[in-house]
Every structure is written in C-alpha cells, then in structure tokens.
User: What shape does this take?
Amino acid sequence: MAGTGKAHLRDSPAPILRVEDLVIEYKTKGQLPVQAVSGVSLEVHSGETLAIIGESGCGKSTLGKGILQLIETQSGSVVFDGVDITKLSKEEMRQTRPNIQMIFQDSISSLDPHMTVSSIVELPLKVWNRGNAEERKTKVNDLLRSVGLDPEVVGDRKPSEFSGGQCQRISIARALALAPKVLICDEPVSSLDVSIQAQILNILQEMKNRYGLSLVFISHDLAVVRAISTRIVVMYLGKICEIADPDTLCETPRHHYTHALVSSVPVPDPTTKNRRAILQGEPPSPTNPPSGCRFRTRCPAATDLCAAEEPQLRESSPGNFVACHHPRD
Amino acid sequence: MSDLISITDLVVDFDTKRGTLHAVRGVSLDIAAGESVGIVGESGSGKTVFSRAAMGLLRGNRVHRTGKIIFEGTDLRTLDNEQVREYWGTKIAMVFQDPMTALNPVRRIGSQMSESLVKRLGMSKEDAKKRSIELLSQVRLPEPELALTKYPHQLSGGMRQRVMIAMSIACNPKLLFADEPTTALDVTVQAQVLELLADLRKDMGMAMVIVTHDLGVVAGYTDRIAVMYGGEIVELATTTDLFADVKMPYTEALMNAIPRIDRKRGSSLAAIEGMPPDPITTHTGCAFAARCPYAQQKCRDQHPELVDAGNGHMYRCFFPIGGK
Assistant: This one.
C-alpha cells in the first residue's frame, strides 16, 4: 500500500485543514518506536465530510488525535486556517482548540458521570467565559434542542440515565458549544444499534449544514461512510492507499485493499450473492512493517516491485488518487 | 423436518428495584437440526435474554421463567443445575459478543481450552493439548501451537473470537448460539468470522442461532430470521421471504436504517425515531405503535397477535405492509 506522496494536495481553494507528511510514533518499552502514522498528507476543505477508513491498528484514530495535537507528533505539519499548529506553544494551541473539536466512539465514558447533562454542555462555555449565566443557559438549551433532546427533561439528569445513542447526542452538543469549524468524529456510531446509528448520522449531517462545519469522520465501516462523506481516505498500516469520492471508491476501487474492504461489507439482501471475504488474516504488526508497499503481504497482485519500491499516490481519475504499482481496472 | 429444539411461550421476567422487568414476553420458536436462524432486534428487544434462556441459562432466584424449552425431548427449563450442565457445551454452546470478558484474562489460552476437554470429555492432558491445536486450526488461527501459550490480551479481537468459537465447538454441540459474534470486530474480520461460522455449521451439521442488531449481517448467513421487538417476535420468515415481502413496519424500518454500500450517497438515512419501549411497562396496544409511521387507533388499543400469512411467514401487525 500505500504510499506516500502529495499529488492529491491542492492549494486552491485554501483548505480549512491541511496535514502534510505527518508522522506520529508511539514509544514502546525496550523496543524501537512504533510508527502509527507514517507520513500522511491530506486536506479538508470547508464544508466537506472527509472520511478516514481502515482496520483496527491502521492509525486512523491516532491521526485524528494528532490533528488535534492531543498526542505528540514527530514531524510534518498540520495547518489550520493558515497556521501550522504543530509549531504553536501550549497556550497558543489551547486558544486554537475551540475551533477543532472531537467526539469519541464511547460516548458514555467520554461524559463525566457525576455532572448533569446541562453542566456538561455548559462547561466549555464556562472555561472560555462565553456569556453570563443566563446567556449560557439559553445557549445550552438551544444546543440540546438542536440534537433532539428536550432540555427540560434531560438537563438535570446524569449520563448514566441515558442510552449510548442519547449520550452521543450530548457529546455532539458539547462539541458544538464553542462553534468549532472542524469536528473530528472518531467512530461515533460504531457502538450503536443500526436504528440509532442512522439518527446520529442524520444529526451530524444536519449540524454540519446548520453550523457550516467541516467533518473528519473516522470509521471502519465503508457503508456508513459512503452514505455521508464527500471524499474517502483509505488507510493501511499508517499510510494512505487511496483517496476518492464515495461512489467511485465503492463502485470501482482501484487499490486491492480498498477492493477487499468493499467486498467484506455485508449487503442486507439475500438475493445478492454475498461476496466472499477475500482478505485473509490480519494486518502485520506496525513494529516491523513490510518493505515497499505495506499491503503486499496480503495483496493478491503483489510482485517483486511491490517489495522493492514504495508506491506513490498518483491520480487515477480526475480528483481520485491511488498508491499502487498494479491498480485494479 | 424434526425439531432439534422447540420453544413454546417462553416468558422471562426479572425482579428489579423499579418493578418486574418483562424481558421476554411469550416467544415460541422451533429450530430444526442443522438450521441457521437469525434473531434480530435493537438493544433491549429481549434477543439476548431469549437466547440465554433458550439454552437453559438465567436460573437465579430473581428470574421468573415460564413456558417450555424442549431440547431432544427434555424440557431444559425444569432441569436442576446439575442436570442442565450436562447439556451446556456438549449439546448446546454459546459464543459471546465480547471475547475479552468471556475469556479469563489471567490464564493462558491453552489451559482454558484444555479445561473443558479434560473435565467434559475425560481426555488426558496431552490429548487435550492435541485436540486444542486441532480446534484452533479448524477455526483458522495462524500458529495454533504458539497461541496456546498466550494470554487473551496478547491476541487481537478477531483472534480472541476465533478462540471462543474453537472452545464452543470443542464438544461438537448440536446447537450453537452466537450472540453478536462480530459486533466488536472490524468489517474485514467480521466477514471472516461469519464465513468461519457458516463453514463450521455445514461441516459439523450444527444448528446455529445468530443474535444481532444488524439485519445486514444475517442476510447472507441464515435460513430464517426472527425479528424481536419489546420482548416478542414481531416477524418470522425465511430470509428470502423476509427481504422480498416484508410485512411488519418495524422490520421495514430496520431495513431502511442500514447504510448500504451498494447504494449511492445522498439523502438522509431513514432513522427510526424514538426509543424502544420500557421493558417494565406492559403493552396495551402494539409495542411498536409509538414509533410506527402507519399506526392507527386500533394499534394503540389492542395488542396484535402473531398471524400466519399462509406460507409460515408470521407477523404481528394489524396493518401489514402490502396488505389491504
């Protein structure tokens, strides 16, 4: 897989967020550091929903945290609104954070169990001294209503009284309190029932339109991502394999890994001949990634070239990019 | 076709601080030998409680069970703890959703696997080890011998689930319950595990029940599907029939809520608004009436019975889709 390269970066119009050659390492006891993200470049345009997809361990969540500078990044840049935020001091970064917010997979544990729902949503406003008590209360009530919760009913209750889907609504309200420009969603619906999942996806979509947000949507589920994203980035072992619009990516995947991902999504229709899982095994350990293309050990089309040389991202059709020596037709 | 297990009017109530919780409200289901059945529903629909009760679990004194669970001529519900243990593992087994909590974190895989083989089948330690390696190869775990020496946390989620499956089939059960077997897994690994289960079922002639919230997961791997809501079966049909001719508005809503990779992006997903009913309350009308787009006054006043559309396709609705 995947490769490096920046052929897909565009300077105009200026993206709201631009990640270039980002490297994130985890230190491990007594061993070499593990590169969870190895030189990833991508852009998020204003009003876009950029999906990042891949299996467990591909570095997608680490990338999300790295963008927010919640974890240390080793090299590369994250440019938000023209400023490289990897170079900012702690205080400058703190000042920037209201613009980039995040919601997490496990909504229940990401809310303080001892606080009431309205105080959870109010906290960011308090920290940043936005408005007086009265104004904050109005704002909190508006936020709760916009995610489909009745402030009169839920305001004084605690997170433990709510289901996973309702807690995710509360997290969204909290993340939107400071009117961010970018919202990073890390597997926001993975632990929810399908029926509830659709509610949350619709709320995110609605909030995006209402507040003019740009979304970075991290997920392992291509079916979810196809429904809501404008572009999809496929990651494997810390690198990007393919970037394309959802319809192109799901209908004519060029990278063999993307193809495998697409085939393993179950189709809820017994008359469709269920495609067999073509991908066997699990990704190799990132402590010792394969040489050349990182996907070659599981790739049906791998050749000697793939071991020798790392493929670069190049344009496969207008606006779509693939990093593969032998892309599918 | 002779039934392997025949469940009639199963009711499971729990005593709770808030009052009696009606988890399962009179479910009947027959499963033939070798058949694959999906049980689909949202959180709180009673699907997990039903499947556990059906294998004779849930025996505490705060649990009240009525109805019949006839497995090979014996009612599992009336057996005492000693007697029912004879069935668990050897005739009926279960794969749980979360393999991390189902496996003992402080014991190696090898010792956990041998335990049931030594105790249940009276194998010697060496034989048990050999058999464990066989079982792990059968579930396509790479390097099975090495895996025996590992602790659960050293394996990935998919590998842990394979170990769970290997343990559950160790004594060749006739019926395997798989409770959300792939919910915690990545899609690629999910596809591998579902295929593994399907292959094992075929090879071993087991009947299998897959419990899930995702209709998409079971569409390709089951003969029949039971949809549960509010502790009851609201629709029961062959998988083909269910998808071709859905009767119950709830099932239709579940289908529409699934994001589909074979559909173009765009319009908002059809979410099911509202929440499932509180299991403490008793239904006066149809349990789904409050969320149903087609609900009429009759639905709120009277409780619909399960009716047969003629070909074994059962549904619980006064105004089925496609009806008059």
